[in-house]
């Protein structure tokens, strides 16, 4: 039996596993399934019976919820995409870059690469923000390659913030990191947690099954 921290309501492991997976696949974090109880399900307590991928999703969701939208900044490098807090990454960058606050330069706290927090691209040395924004290099920076890759990988682009979204597993209800919700199949907006299109909500191939789970020892 699994006991929820804080309220000590008890449930079997299989029921808790299913409850948490359904919540995460729906773009939510998990709380106690007992009617009316709002106790948080701690990630460290349920990691032993969840797929490691789900644990990573829970960690990311908790971190995103703890940071206001106006304070979020993401590393623009596709191989990183680390979520950071604006004032934290600024203070971190000041150790390596003189005039970071005025220039807009930031050093990713994970991969260590520099980027422009205003352009949201890799750092453009010796070129001002305004000059770079007017340049052909900015207008075409990786557009062709990105579009080709997005098409081959069947990625979706959020119409609100233009970030690319890749569905690895789960349902087709997408909640972008900017907060915008849409259908991964057609791109139609979700309103009040409800679809505005008639596309299927999920595909059996994208749902994690018990047989695919490798429990942590």
UniProtKB/TrEMBL annotation:
* Domain RING-type residues, every copy: 1-203
The Swiss-Prot or TrEMBL record annotates one GO molecular function as: zinc ion binding
Q: Which domain of life is it from?
A: Eukaryota
Q: Cofactors per UniProt? A: Zn(2+)
Q: Give, as in the UniProt entry, the pathway in which the protein acts.
A: Protein modification; protein ubiquitination
Pfam entry (one) = IBR
The record's catalysed reaction(s) read:
[E2 ubiquitin-conjugating enzyme]-S-ubiquitinyl-L-cysteine + [acceptor protein]-L-lysine = [E2 ubiquitin-conjugating enzyme]-L-cysteine + [acceptor protein]-N(6)-ubiquitinyl-L-lysine
Q: Name one GO biological process term.
A: protein ubiquitination
Task: Look at the named UniProt entry and state the broad enzyme category this protein falls under.
Answer: transferase
Q: What positions belong to coiled-coil segments?
A: none
Matching entries from Gene3D superfamilies are given as: 1.20.120.1750, Zinc/RING finger domain, C3HC4 (zinc finger)
Keywords, sorted A to Z:
Metal-binding, Repeat, Transferase, Ubl conjugation pathway, Zinc, Zinc-finger
Q: What is its EC number?
A: 2.3.2.31
Record-linked InterPro entries: E3_UB_ligase_RBR, IBR_dom, TRIAD_supradom, Znf_RING/FYVE/PHD, Znf_RING_CS
Q: Which PANTHER family match?
A: RBR FAMILY RING FINGER AND IBR DOMAIN-CONTAINING
- Record-given protein name: RBR-type E3 ubiquitin transferase
The scientific name of the source species is: Arabis nemorensis
- Organism classification, top ranks? Eukaryota, Viridiplantae, Streptophyta, Embryophyta, Tracheophyta
């Amino acid at each position: 039996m699994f006991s929820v921290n804080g309220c000590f309501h008890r449930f079997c492991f299989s029921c808790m596993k299913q409850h948490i997976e359904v919540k995460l696949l729906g773009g939510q974090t998990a709380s106690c399934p007992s009617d009316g109880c709002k106790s948080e399900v701690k990630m460290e307590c349920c990691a032993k019976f969840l797929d490691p991928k789900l644990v990573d999703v829970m960690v990311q969701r908790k971190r995103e919820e703890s940071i206001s939208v106006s304070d979020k900044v993401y590393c623009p490098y596709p191989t990183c995409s680390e979520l950071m807090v604006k004032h934290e990454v600024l203070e971190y960058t000041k150790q390596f870059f003189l005039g970071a606050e005025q220039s807009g330069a930031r050093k990713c706290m994970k991969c260590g690469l520099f980027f422009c927090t205003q352009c949201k691209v890799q750092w453009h040395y010796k070129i001002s923000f305004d000059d770079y924004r007017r340049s052909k290099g900015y207008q075409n920076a990786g557009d062709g390659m990105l579009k080709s890759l997005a098409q081959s990988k069947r990625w979706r682009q959020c119409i609100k913030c233009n970030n690319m979204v890749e569905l690895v597993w789960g349902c087709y209800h997408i909640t972008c990191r900017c907060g915008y919700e849409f259908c991964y199949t057609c791109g139609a907006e979700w309103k009040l947690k409800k679809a505005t299109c008639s596309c299927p909500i999920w595909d059996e191939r994208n749902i994690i099954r018990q047989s695919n789970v490798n429990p942590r020892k």
